[in-house]
Amino acid sequence: MPKLVRQGPVVADVAPGVPRGPYRWRWAALAVLLTAEAMNLLDATIVQVAAPVIHTDLGGPDSVIQWYAAAYTLPFAMFLITGGRLGDILGRRRVFRVGVAAFLAASLLCAAAPSAGVLIGARAVQGAAAALVIPQTIGLIRAMFDGDERARALGTIGPVMGLAAVCGPALGGLLTHADLFGSSWRAVFLVNLPLGAAVLLAAPLLHEDRAAVRPRLDLSGTALVVTGSGAVVYPLIQGHDAGWPGWTWALLAGGTALLGLFGLDQRRKSRRGRSPLVEAGLFRHRGFPAALVTSTLFFAVMNGLMLVVVLHLQLGLDADVLTAGLTLLPWSFGMAVASWVAGARLVPRYGPRLMYAGLATLLAGVLAATAVYAASDPAAYPWPLPAALAVCGAGVGLFTVPFFTAALHRVGPAETGSAAGLLNAVQQLGGTLGTALLGGVFLGAADPADGAQRAFWAAGALLLATAVAVAAGLRRPSADPAR
Prior knowledge:
2 strands; mainly alpha; two-stranded antiparallel sheet; disordered N terminus
């Protein structure tokens, strides 16, 4: 009996053991996936530059500036794995289309938001919708491509992610400054509408695909990790405005306890043969847990520092949004150049050891920026800062290219999808924590220049902790007693 295999909107008969051949519209479908990926990842950074302008327009305490980014990245991180499983169960193309449609609706609500509360709520919906879209990319590429073409298609994801990170702050500054038709900051959300509409119109080109063995949703695990993470992030952002009363510390303790309970819950489900949210097999060797810690710390530094630079310029120096966006451009340029050099020349020669060079370069840029803030006139634009930020960006590029390869090096083929999803989740969680921690350090200082210095010193301490995590992850398996 021939087996039914879906090819796009058509169902074709293919006998067992007979290759179905390459999917006809695979390259056009890849362009659809990459456009959606760029649109979703762009929204993680595009708001950072516009956030102070939004705050001036909509009002509220200073902490809402941090929420404009955190409200997106936190649900994005927490629902990524669940979004991937929904694709396994219901069909990846179907979930992809639902996610894009929800993202567009939330973007429209963001653009029309009359208050800070409505905007933060709409940003949370955007993040949850992005968690439905992004996990489907790898699964759909695997379904549409074979052999060497599959490797080439998967290899396009990294540059698109890098391009989104590079373009986000600059594009946010340009769109807000342009004030097209009086839209001001609302343009950073309206830009999603033509992109998302094009993706939805072209979505029928995608090959429908779902897991052969459908996993179960871990609803209780998802509830624990979402509640626990939210309970940790909320007081970190609100604590300064509230004066750090007792409830903030109680929430931090409660959130930490819930995350510990989540870990125990995942172990129990794994032992009983149920479907945990996080595959227990990923933790057999200390290398992957160390990679998760590394990712959390590193992206906390990266996202947090970008926000601090914007806050100092716009709140401390009253610089306009275009100046803030252009100030971050050397960071983006340094990151782009270093990523290319690392991928083409340095990683093949030095391998994962290049991560140490990336961390050292980033730390040098952080220390240089700290010196700039200390030596500059507190009321004047710090002109040497862009050069220091270019060094920071170069460090980011040198680190990220070897990091993801090293993180997945010891992961088995059957666990690659789960590992990649978990790495993406902790990357977004790290960005959320960085926004809360370093943004809170800046806003907690009486003087903006002093706040920027303190935030950059705190980032330096986090980078040292990152280096320790990298060393643990690169330790040889033979030295690992857990094996």
